[in-house]
Structure of Fructose-1,6-bisphosphatase/inositol monophosphatase family enzyme:
Amino acid sequence: MPGIDRVSDLIRSVARTEILPHFRTLDASGIRQKTGPTDLVTLADEAAERALTPALQALLPGSRVIGEEAASEDERVLDRIHGDEPVWIIDPVDGTINFAQGRPMFAVIVALARRGETVAGWIHDPIDGRMATAVKGEGAWLDGRRVHVAPAVPLPRMVGALSTRFCAEELGRQLEERGAGLGERVCLSSAAQEYLRLLDGRAHYSLYHRLMPWDHAAGVLMHAEAGGHSALIDGTPYRPGLLNGSILLAPDRESWQDLRRHLFG
C-alpha cells in the first residue's frame, strides 16, 4: 500500500497539469460522444488517464489499472478486478458532461482494490481543491479532518440524489412518484460530487442504477468508513466487480431499510 498522501499529491498534480488547462477552453474537436449525447469523453479525460496510469503503477509495482476510457475501448479491461494483482480504478474526470459544458461540478476518482475488494479511495475536486480519502478500517477524511455521515432524519427531511438514469422506465416513474415524499433532491451529474455531499453531511442518501467501478468503488468505501450503510436493493453488499443492479446509500441500516421500503415497496 503506497502512502495515501503520495497518491493524493499525484492526483492533484495530474489535475493541475492535464485537466484544468482544458476547463472552459475546449472546442468541439476536444469533445466526442462514446455511446450517446450524455456519454462524453474530452481531451482532459484522456490526458489525465494517460498520466495517472503509469504513475500509479510506479507507486505500486505489480499493480494493474482499470481506467474508464481504456475500458470503453476494450471491456475486457474490467476483468482485471478479479485477478490477484492489486488494481487501480480510475475515473479521470467524473462529471464529464459538466466539464464539457464549463460547469465546475466534476472530480477525479481513484480507488485501489485487491482481490475484488476496495481497500483505499480518493476523490479530488480540482476547482476548490478538496481531497477526500479513505483506507479500509481507518476512517474517511476530507482535507485532513475525519468525517462522518449526516445523522439519520425522518424520510420527509432526507436530502439526496435520487437518480432515475439507467433504470427501467416503469421503475423510473415509480421512483419519481415516491421520491416526492422525501426531502430536497440534489442530482449533480457527478457521482463524485454527490459522494462528497454525503461525506460532509449535506446529503443523507444516494441511489444509483449503473455500477461501473470507477464511479462507485472509492465513494462506497468512503461512505462506509464515515459510518454510512449501503447495499444493493436486494441487500447484496457492494463490491467493485458488480456491474448490474441498483445501490442505495443511507446514514445507517435502519434508514436504509426505511428508504428501500419507501422507494421500492
Q: What stands out?
A: Residues 43-59 form the longest helix (17 residues). The two ends are 42 Å apart (CA to CA).
